[in-house]
Specification:
Blueprint (H helix, E strand, L loop, with lengths): L1 H16 L1 H9 L6 H25 L5 H23 L2 H25 L9 H20 L7 H25 L1 H7 L2 H31 L2
Helix pairs in contact: 1-9, 2-3, 2-9, 3-4, 4-5, 4-6, 6-7, 7-9
Length: 217
């Protein structure tokens, strides 16, 4: 029973929830900022990668190589969002350098340090740290902006979603290989269901951000 619920929740409910912000974003596309346009593209590609990963898992194919690809994609996509959200040349330059350096580190990691057939417990936590720090800087910048501005308020919701997910998942990213090899099935179900719940909440935050911005324009 627990296993069935977990599989349904992980394979259908949470990935399906990605459609909430995607559909809202497509409906209100012309009323949204360029930053949120980038977010919608990120969510669309993330959904496709998720579907591929689920299909691979259902056919007993190791989908860890896909996770390595997704980690790199996710960091680049989130930083693309923040490049547009900050909307300054200085921020764009720093973020571009960060994107290039992280890409190189990912390639080095799966080439020399961690097999593509195991969790990437070096680059995934690093991704979380980068996103959390960038999000905190973004919120501090918004602290000096007009709180009534719709884009800024949408940006707070989106950043809140990122911070909630990446902060809550950090230790799971670090210990994924340990959990995979040593935790009991019931413990794995609890951990992964918690992880999926934070993902679900993040998508809801994105949906609220899109609706909020669209209603104010």
């Amino acid at each position: 029973m627990l296993k069935t619920f977990s599989l349904l929740y992980e394979s259908y409910v949470v990935p399906g929830a990605t459609l909430l912000p995607i559909i809202a974003g497509l409906i209100y596309y012309k009323r949204l900022s360029k930053a949120i346009h980038a977010l919608i593209v990120y969510l669309g590609i993330a959904l496709l990668i998720n579907i591929v990963g689920i299909v691979m898992a259902n056919h007993n194919i190791n989908n860890m190589p896909l996770l390595h690809i997704y980690t790199l994609f996710e960091l680049l996509a989130v930083m693309w969002y923040y490049k547009r959200a900050f909307n300054t040349q200085a921020a764009a330059t720093r973020i571009t350098v960060l994107m290039v350096v992280y890409s190189v580190l990912c390639v080095l990691n799966f080439t020399f340090f961690q097999s593509i057939y195991q969790f990437n417990t070096y680059t995934r936590p690093l991704e979380a740290i980068i996103v959390v720090v960038t999000g905190c800087i973004y919120l501090s910048v918004l602290g000096n902006a007009d709180s009534k501005d719709s884009v800024n308020n949408a940006g707070r919701w989106i950043t809140g979603g990122f911070l909630l997910y990446f902060c809550s998942s950090f230790f799971q990213f670090v210990f994924s290989n340990v959990i995979s090899h040593h935790a009991s099935k019931s413990v794995k179900f609890i951990i992964w269901n918690l992880h999926d719940t934070f993902v679900l909440i993040m998508y809801i935050f994105f949906f609220v951000a899109i609706r909020y911005e669209a209603s104010k324009r």
